[in-house]
Amino acid sequence: ENHDDVEASIYLAGVLIQEMMWQRSAKSLLLAGPPKICEALKAAYSEGGAYEFEIKSMPNVCGTPTEPFQVRIVKPEELPAHKDSPQVCGKDASGCRLAFDLGKSDIKTVAVKDNEVLYSKETEWDVTNPDPDYHYDAIVGALKKAKEVLPKIDAVGGSATGTVSADNEATWCDIFPNVPPDVYKAKVVDIFKRMAKEVAGDVPLKVINDGEVTALAAVQKIGRGNVMGISMGSSEGGGYANADGNLMGWINEMCYMKLDLNPEAPTEPWSKGCHRGLSHMYLGQRGATKLAAKAGVKVPDNCGYPHPDMCTMKHEIHAECLKLIQKAMADPEQEPKVRKIYITIGVYLGYALAQYCEFYDIEHVMILGRVSKGKGGDLMLDTAKSVLKAEFPKLQGIQFHTADDHFKAVGQCIAAAALPTIK
């Protein structure tokens, strides 16, 4: 702790702790080690510190919003043993099922009968709306349309950003960012159970984190374990399935992990300006849209980052901008410039995977989401592979998997349909 570079050690330790929190969640933080470093980290993870956003978010993430986050310095022998709680989820979509996947730009719905998709649709919505009834009506309306193609409903599955309890409660879901806390508790916590009952009655229901269902979609698609599933949509959704193809019981909120340590890296609205370099701005559609104007894509003036319209929680402008990028990528005259966007995102992805390998045993990666669509997505994956080969040769054996554009868009939703067990 007396080394000239001790401040670098403190900074990197803080980043690693932050990453582990968004992987697994945390009700408290126990620190053991050199006193100077521990005291500095305790201050960083206290009110007014660099990680105030984390200590204020974690009680909500864990479903204990009234219990303040605790940080203690302890002896090494007082640290608890490592413990995971692997979870077995359904992977068979027999019978008649409805499923939804709630993203920051749209509501994806599918109707499945005996593992065959009969209906799928993406319905745009405004997650910034503070009225929970708006969200309830939007989701129920989308599910009722999907219901029309089925003779009956045997089960409902779903996924959403944030943390969902074992009892299908929306413990902390950042797709409702502007709903006041008291209203959230009264009308959002039980929203999944209420809407499933209205649409389908008393049938089995299972809702999990959207990143986790990405991992299950990957397991279903490739039939392997040790799989990292990454959905590059409105932001980065990610999940991991172990060697047995089961989830680890982690939250895997990868969009809140720091990928860029540059002190001038972009910030985003979700951490309320507390952080820079979070994945939100690199492995989702904002990773592409922030580069659109710079790459020469013809976009409206307000789509040129960092125009104020590009720096809010609203995703519609980014979804439209991404469509313009994809259209330009298909134009032979514009392609030479636009391809640089996908090469850049591929570099982001390659380095991010190397970072994730510090904590996950990754043998396979499945990439889904609208950013991965088209030949731009193929270029992105080829670039990520090149990064691993050149910079991290021990990781070049990781196998990349993708799917057709339809599965890229709604694959998570299809996997969610298999989550409930029909009794």
Description:
Helix 1 (6-24) packs across helix 2 (35-44) and helix 4 packs parallel to helix 6. Strands 5-4-3-6-7 form a five-stranded mixed sheet. It is globular. A hairpin with a 2-residue loop joins strand 4 and strand 5 (116-124). With 423 residues, the chain is of the alpha/beta class. Helix content is 37%, strand content 15%.
Chain-wise SSE layout:
Layout: H1 6-24, E1 28-31, H2 35-44, H3 52-61, E2 70-73, E3 96-102, E4 106-113, E5 116-124, H4 132-147, E6 155-160, H5 181-188, H6 191-200, E7 205-209, H7 210-222, E8 227-232, E9 236-241, H8 285-289, H9 316-329, H10 335-356, E10 364-368, H11 374-391, E11 399-401, H12 405-417
Parallel strand pairs: 1-2, 3-6, 6-7, 8-10, 10-11
Antiparallel strand pairs: 3-4, 4-5, 8-9
Order of helices and strands: HEHHEEEEHEHHEHEEHHHEHEH
Helical amount: 25-40%
Average predicted confidence as pLDDT:
93
User: Beta-sheet strand percentage?
Assistant: 5-15%
> What is the gyration radius calculated from CA atoms?
21 Å
Helix count, per DSSP? 12
Distance between the termini: 58 Å
- Described by the principal axes of the CA atoms, the overall outline is globular
Low-confidence stretches: none
Strand order of the largest sheet: 5-4-3-6-7
Q: Describe the biggest sheet?
A: 5 strands, mixed
Total strand segments: 11
Task: Assign the structural class, choosing from mainly alpha, mainly beta, alpha/beta, alpha+beta, or little secondary structure.
Answer: alpha/beta
